[in-house]
Design a protein that fits this description.
Length: 178
């Protein structure tokens, strides 16, 4: 082991983890049309599932809201993204608890607008991580849980959720294109 090299930090691990999400989303979205983006696959029970576009939108909204809450800063979405995306939901909507009917109402101005929004969210996440002070990840950000949730635990949850949803979107793309 190189004695002059410093050990990776939790921030380094989070930056590496979050750096993988944009490529996953671009691989799903960049070459599909708006119809495929909003198509809801039919689940075995006959109920419609989440569309690729809705999933990608939810990933962005979820990460945006969680990072903003950790930093006590406005969401990236507040910078005119509702209008640019053209989604039919209230500005404080993130996708949690939505019905199949709510998901069916999903529209977006274009596939590129969706990835542009996520890219802006990702840039903000990277900026926040790179400016995290020593000990900043151990700060409690949610006391509603036992044990209380630290910034580190919340960010690990965000990247885990994003990676799982990105996999769902890729799977749906494969199903719908075959």
């Amino acid at each position: 082991m190189n004695q002059n090299a410093s050990e990776p930090t939790a921030v380094d691990a989070l930056l590496e983890s979050f750096s993988r999400i944009p490529e996953l989303l671009h691989n799903v979205v960049d070459d599909i049309d708006a119809d495929l983006l909003t198509t809801q696959p039919q689940l075995p029970e006959g109920h419609p599932g989440n569309s690729i576009g809705w999933i990608v939108w939810h990933i962005g909204r979820m990460e945006d809201a969680q990072v903003a809450a950790i930093t006590d800063a406005p969401e990236v979405y507040a910078d005119g993204w509702a209008e640019r995306l053209g989604t039919p939901y209230a500005a404080d909507t993130h996708g949690y608890g939505m019905s199949a009917g709510d998901v069916a109402r999903f529209t977006v101005s274009s596939p590129s607008a969706l990835t542009d929004y996520y890219d802006a969210v990702h840039a903000r996440t990277v900026e926040v991580l790179q400016s995290t002070p020593a000990g900043g990840l151990s700060r409690v950000v949610d006391e509603r849980w036992d044990p209380p949730v630290t910034a580190l635990v919340r960010l690990v949850s965000v990247v885990d959720d994003a990676a799982q949803h990105a996999g769902q979107a890729a799977y749906i793309k494969g199903l719908l294109q075959d």
